């Protein structure tokens, strides 16, 4: 896949993160009976969420940093079909539903330093530079959004994403704070085993050169809190290698919410 085509995919989402079943859901967004009977807890504050979100040293093999530049206002991220708003917004770093508070972090895989000799000019002539470049870009980068809700807000937030996955399976277009977005397919995926209920999907863009570029998302409810994960891997996009939201990242965040 050509680099220019890759960078065209969900441009704002990429910039935000990098600084530049059986049927897919673990449980139905309707929730389990015993859990549904529990009284709704009060939402956590932004300060409390910042203590609970992933931090440096929480995930082996990954670095955790603040999201550079912040996220756009919810009102500036809209799909042409309003039913698809929850998908476009979570891919832009905006928590689903109407949270009382939210915070986020960028979690990037740390690759081991290469042990072979530096690439020579002869290697460049042989086309090895391109392979080396693609390998250097083969890094999972995940935006983690932690949000908290009053009342039944967390359930409703997860349900909005689940409903949008079904309504927008054939693709959708939208505007991400001035950047046009076009996804041709939304496919349900199996989420990690975490939280009270969860959903996951892959949104795919078809590039002008015929290549495809997938973005992977998981949304997990932990009581009245929701952890959302949006992962991109430019190197995998270029080589068409399969990738997903890193299970280690989801597991580490879930452990902090128990």
From TrEMBL:
PROSITE patterns: PROKAR_LIPOPROTEIN. It comes from the Bacteria. This is Lipoprotein. It comes from Streptomyces bungoensis.
């Amino acid at each position: 896949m050509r680099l220019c085509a890759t960078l065209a995919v969900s441009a704002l989402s990429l910039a935000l993160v990098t600084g530049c079943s059986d049927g897919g859901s673990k449980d139905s967004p309707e929730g389990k009976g015993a859990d549904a009977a529990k009284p709704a807890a009060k939402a956590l504050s932004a300060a409390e969420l910042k203590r609970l979100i992933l931090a440096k040293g929480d995930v082996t093999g990954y670095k955790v940093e603040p999201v550079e530049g912040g996220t756009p206002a919810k009102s500036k991220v809209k799909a042409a079909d309003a039913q698809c708003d929850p998908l476009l917004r979570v891919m832009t770093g905006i928590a689903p539903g109407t949270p009382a508070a939210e915070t986020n972090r960028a979690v990037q895989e740390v690759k081991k330093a290469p042990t072979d000799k530096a690439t020579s000019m002869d290697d460049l002539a042989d086309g090895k530079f391109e392979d080396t470049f693609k390998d250097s870009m083969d890094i999972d980068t995940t935006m983690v959004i932690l949000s908290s809700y009053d009342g039944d807000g967390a359930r409703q937030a997860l349900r909005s994403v689940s409903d949008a996955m079904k309504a927008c399976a054939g693709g959708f277009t939208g505007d991400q704070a001035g950047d046009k977005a076009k996804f041709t397919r939304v496919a349900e995926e199996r989420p990690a085993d975490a939280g009270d209920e969860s959903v996951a999907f892959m949104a795919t863009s078809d590039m002008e050169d015929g290549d495809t570029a997938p973005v992977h998302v998981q949304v997990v409810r932990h009581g009245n809190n929701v952890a959302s994960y949006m992962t991109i891997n430019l190197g995998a996009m270029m080589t068409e290698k399969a990738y997903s939201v890193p299970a280690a990242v989801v597991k580490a965040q879930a452990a902090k919410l128990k």
